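Tokens for chain A. Residues wanted.
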């Protein structure tokens, strides 16, 4: 009888344990369309974790802002409405100025420097997120940012008064310092904003221009300024994280490392292929002239000073580690 009782209680606890382990399902909120390389990479990450976790964790991706829009994802993950999500880091400067270090013009203008800056800033960023109840998994850059315009831009004067689509505080500041009129608009609404005439210029990657078929909305020019490589990051709600056993946590970290490496490679490929796609679609793809280049450099220097003042000692230590 005693043996029977022990057996029953063992079976019960095994079943309970298995049940708890089986029950974990994470919703992964993604802001960008399923065809975007960030989303495709995240889908592969989710699939690999799901398949390799032995049924302990299922991650379901929701691309295109279908679960939460870009602007809502950080808070959704923080509050546990979504267990995991991807967010454009430099839109979160108000949460932590270090998150926008990758959108400071001319600080890192190549993939190698972008990686160096990422490594220099990551420890502080991870710490800051941890304090907000978030676990950092990986970060992947967008291709080099360039200037899109409906009309040709040949001088600083040509920028004056342009209705400019911005995606974070840094691009708003660039617009202010160059005399453009900024409006913050999420990537999903770009086509509409250009086709209705709400905006007539923006700075973003060749990838986002291609994904929004920007040439169909009267945008004929792309100037490859390549002044920064802003990143998306994938974060997890810490309470959800703590429900996993350590083997599953390890698996996620390993798959995150793989996804990060693949993501950087995809970004580099897109940096070439997507620019070609813009010119194949009939757009004029080139560089700004040297007067404009100088002007953007000056704007960048002003912004660097402003950012240093905002980011304080933590920012200074990141810049020292980078240089
Ligand atoms: N695409 C995103 C962020 C940076 C980029 O290249 C956007 O335009 O919103």
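Reply:
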């Amino acid at each position: 009888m005693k043996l029977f009782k022990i057996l029953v209680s063992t079976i019960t606890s095994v079943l309970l344990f298995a049940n708890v382990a089986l029950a974990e399902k994470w919703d992964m909120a993604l802001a960008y369309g399923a065809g975007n390389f960030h989303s495709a990479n995240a889908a592969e990450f989710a699939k690999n974790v799901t398949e390799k976790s032995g049924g302990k964790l299922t991650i379901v991706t929701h691309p295109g802002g279908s679960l939460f829009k870009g602007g809502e994802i950080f808070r959704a993950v923080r509050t546990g409405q979504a267990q995991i999500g991807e967010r454009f880091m430099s839109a979160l400067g108000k949460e932590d100025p270090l998150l926008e270090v990758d959108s400071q013009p001319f600080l890192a203008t190549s993939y190698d420097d972008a990686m160096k800056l990422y490594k220099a800033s990551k420890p502080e960023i991870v710490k800051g997120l941890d304090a907000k109840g978030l676990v950092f998994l990986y970060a992947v850059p967008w291709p080099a940012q360039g200037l899109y315009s409906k009309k040709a831009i040949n001088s600083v004067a040509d920028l004056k008064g342009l209705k400019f689509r911005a995606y974070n505080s840094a691009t708003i500041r660039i617009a202010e310092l160059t005399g453009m009129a900024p409006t913050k608009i999420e990537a999903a609404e770009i086509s509409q904003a250009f086709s209705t005439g709400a905006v007539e210029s923006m700075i973003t990657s060749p990838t986002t221009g291609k994904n929004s078929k920007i040439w169909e909305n009267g945008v004929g020019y792309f100037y490859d300024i390549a002044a920064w490589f802003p990143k998306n990051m994938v974060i997890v709600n810490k309470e959800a994280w703590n429900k996993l056993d350590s083997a599953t946590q390890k698996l996620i970290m390993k798959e995150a490392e793989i996804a990060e490496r693949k993501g950087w490679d995809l970004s580099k490929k897109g940096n070439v292929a997507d620019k070609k796609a813009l010119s194949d679609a009939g757009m004029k793809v080139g560089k700004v002239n040297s007067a404009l280049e100088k002007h953007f450099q000056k704007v960048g220097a002003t912004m660097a000073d402003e950012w240093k003042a905002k980011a304080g000692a933590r920012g200074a230590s990141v810049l020292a580690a980078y240089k």
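The first helix runs from residue 2 to 22. The pocket of pyroglutamic acid is lined by residues 88, 142, 167, 187, 204-205, 207-208, 230 (CB under 6 Å).
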